[in-house]
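User: Structure please.
Assistant: Input sequence and predicted structure:
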Amino acid sequence: MRILQVHNFYQQAGGEDWVVENEQRLLTRAGHEVSQYTLHNNAIQQMPALEIAAKAFWNKESYESLRRKISQLGADVVHVHNTFPLMSPSIYYAARAEKTPIVQTLHNYRLICPAATLYRAGDVCEDCVGKRIPFPAALHSCYRGSFPASVVTVAMLSVHRMWGTYDSKVNAYIALSEFAKDKFIEGGLPEQLMRVKPNFLVEDPGIGSGYGGYALFVGRLSPEKGVITLLDAWEKLEGRIRLQIVGTGPLQEIVAERTTEIPNATYLGRCERERVFELMRNASALMFPSEWYEGSPMSMVEAMACGTPIIAGNQGVLATIVTEGVNGHLFESGNASALAECVEEAFKNGDELARMRYPTRQYFESHFGAKDNLATLLDIYQQAIDAGNG
């Protein structure tokens, strides 16, 4: 099968970029031909604001370039990961013009929430879900805290909903969990086009011992990830348990400063992938205090591959992945006191966390393994091809 991956890279690399790379490797190893059409948001730095706004609605260059690419490759299917903001939904029309079926992975909630996170002012927000014109996002300046940029994003989504772009130009959607699937359907995407395929790992890091005796956080240092709640919880623990934090993001200066003040907390900054896996294998537990509706977080998938139990907030997909006392523990999301109590209780008996390592690894193998993921992905491609030929 000839697959054309389409992806608009973000300025700061994240889980979506890893998924694109993983799927390319997975498909190539299985004998499929994978090509890419990509743009990078670093280009935004040299663009006037009006040009960025115009491209978000319709990028003529992307439309024409993608048509040429599809024609040259003879692609069987176009798999779109991210179009925002530079590529624009014009790429759907380009694929349709070439009579090539389209699969869209929904890595975030952009199509039903201009901020893409269903998160605002420190809490879950669903004010725009189900609205054809998501005006609350403009009212609250939800996109990057900018009123003009939020208006552009709201207008782009509203216009393409009016045109039927998301209903009629895509042959299959991939949601990362049943929870996310239900949210997208609630937000107005066609139920009959929705499939579920979580993220996965191509390279298996192997199960670790957990003998390091520390808690580990790996992720983007931003408000919705709950890193402030994590630091508040560690203040309450007063150094009784060791914490290592890996990641970068808008809150990294705050994290760096506070970890110098909190006993037994260390900020490691950005680490190379192999170092992250080493830390995960040796960690007693992965801290996952995220306060937004996660999709299929790669750091959680990676930790579970290492057999490392998860301590997570009890909302969204996290509450469906973590089974209390089996592969981790749940606490009240956003509650630093509840997190501190949960961590102290979990680390009180090291044998309990050690006992969870095998069930955690088993969960990874049964839900996030590469073989089953490949079979699901190819089935979705075939569904899109059949729909395109229908």
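The two ends are 19 Å apart (CA to CA).
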